[in-house]
Amino acid sequence: VLTAPTMPLKRSRRVPKFTLLAVFMIVILAVFSVHDTEANLGAKSAKPVEEPAPVSKMPTLKKIGYISLGALATLKIASHILSSKASSVSSLPGQTFVGSGIRAKGPISVYSVKMFVGNRAKGALSAFKGKELKGDSKFVDTLSKSGFQKTIQIEMLRTVTPTKMINSFNDAMSARIPKSTFSKLEGSLGDLLTKSFTPKASSKGSQITFSMTGGTSFSISVEGENQGSIWSPVLCQAFTDLYVGPKAVSSGARDNIISGLQEYINS
Fold first, then answer.
1. Is the pTM of this model over 0.90?
2. Where are any strands of DSSP class E within 157-249?
3. Which residues pair with 221 in a beta bridge?
4. Distance (Å, rounded) from C-alpha 192 to C-alpha 30?
5. Does residue 256 surpass a pLDDT of 70?
6. What CA–CA distances, in Å, run from 65 to 58, 71, 72?
7. How far, in Å, are 9, 111, 158, 191, 228 from residue 195 at the CA level?
8. What's the pLDDT tens digit per position in 43-101?
9. By the 8 A CB rule, do 126 and 265 touch?
């Protein structure tokens, strides 16, 4: 019986792993090579294009942190503005708020100032109803000499020395009061200022109130505590002129106060 010759069986050979890896790397290199070649060819024919500005790669959490801080800062500013507005329309018993502003020296804000007038002010100033009061010297003179209650309230926006406050006060008053009259006031006024303008009173955030009652009595209170008073009509007039006169220490505060008084008189 004839039988077909048996063929030797071939063993299956597995391609080694490193060979597959090598082939894969060759293919990848070939693809990048082609891409670079096309890019270079395109670059020769195309006009140069400016590179876009680098984009920030700030992590998302970091961005959220900055946004949160910004939001908190905005809320703080808004809160300050709202509280300022609320305090600016406050009133004292039997008096009406008429205006406010900032006393500054150059770029530095020293203190904020608010003015209040007693209920008799409208009747005392009725002759000026319907008139433009800015720049009206007669109105300022009448306002300064009138006997209705006038109050100037300041809040320190920075800390200054008591000596500087006393000197500034005396300089401002001596420029508005005749020398012979001011010399008679120096003793009693010096005692009142020394008692009132302490390191605590001259510190940032302190509130000082100057009251002129009946056009004759000038008194000072610090944080609501009365420090004393002086009988002096001329001092009351000079101190009023300091904030509403032509040479007021703050033109912005003066204009706001005059506008507020005009609105008050016309109401």
1. no
2. 207-213, 217-222, 225-231
3. 209, 226
4. 95
5. yes
6. 11, 10, 11
7. 120, 20, 20, 6, 8
8. 444 444 454 555 444 445 454 444 444 444 433 433 343 344 434 456 788 999 999 99
9. yes
